[in-house]
Every structure is written in structure tokens, then in C-alpha cells.
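DM between two lab members

TW: hey, do you still have the Cytochrome P450 entry open?
JB: yeah, one sec
JB: this one, 147 aa:
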Amino acid sequence: MQYLHAALTETLRLYPSAPTDPKYCFSDDTLPDGSDVNKGDLVFYQPYPMGRMKFLWGDDADDFRPERWLNNDGIFVPQSPFKFTAFQAGPRICLGKEFSYREMKIVAATLLYFFKFQLWDSSREVKIRTMLTLQIDGGLHLRAMHR
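TW: and the structure you got?
JB:
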């Protein structure tokens, strides 16, 4: 399941559930880069564009490449949660992260065992909409065929 874990992580790198994440400052503070924030400030970080930054992920940052998460032995190697922010980081890291991965693996393995999938209209370009959560504009219409 190492490759499946890498594929799910790569999907979340490129298409995080929460494409932007605002944080409200309850007290004056200093960010890790030295920037000062004041009580009442609203600070945003944006996992969607962060997952495409070439200086973080390399020249192939726009490419779906699950192998970037695997070592030479095919074992999954996690990145810093401050680089891969789909589950946040630090004291606010998602408590359900491991459960979420387990759930995604069970659903993916079950669906892929029983079905093959194709886009219903292969000529239609899939576009996303950035809202509170990342959404596929117009939905993703698939054809599922028994294996």
C-alpha cells in the first residue's frame, strides 16, 4: 500500500481539500520567518499554490508524480507538514490525518478492485473551483465498469 499512500498524498498536494486557510491572531506574535503579526490580524496560507511551488517541489511541481514520495526501496517518505500542508502543521495538525488516510485507502482499494473508471466525456476539460473547499466545476462525471 506504499504506492497508494504516495498517490493519495500526491493528489492532496495538488488538490488539497481546503485550498486556502485563514487564521485569526488572538495575540501579537512573530511568524517563523520573522514577520510580526498583531492581535486581530487575519493571516492566510494557501495549500493549493504551495503544492505547485517549484522551489518547494522541483521543476516538475505541476506534474502528478507519486514517486516523489517514495525512496529507492519503494517506501513512503513523508515531507514536513510545514511543506505539505494538506493536514496543517504544528499544534493545529489534523487529529484525524491517519484515520483519513486509512479511510481513503479502504475506499480506493475497494473501488479499484471492483471497477474501472473513465471520464464520461473525455473531450471535456476538468476544471476546479476554489471555494471554502476545492470543488470540481460542474462535477466529475465518470463511467464505472465492472472488472
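TW: got it. The mean pLDDT is 93. The first helix runs from residue 2 to 14.
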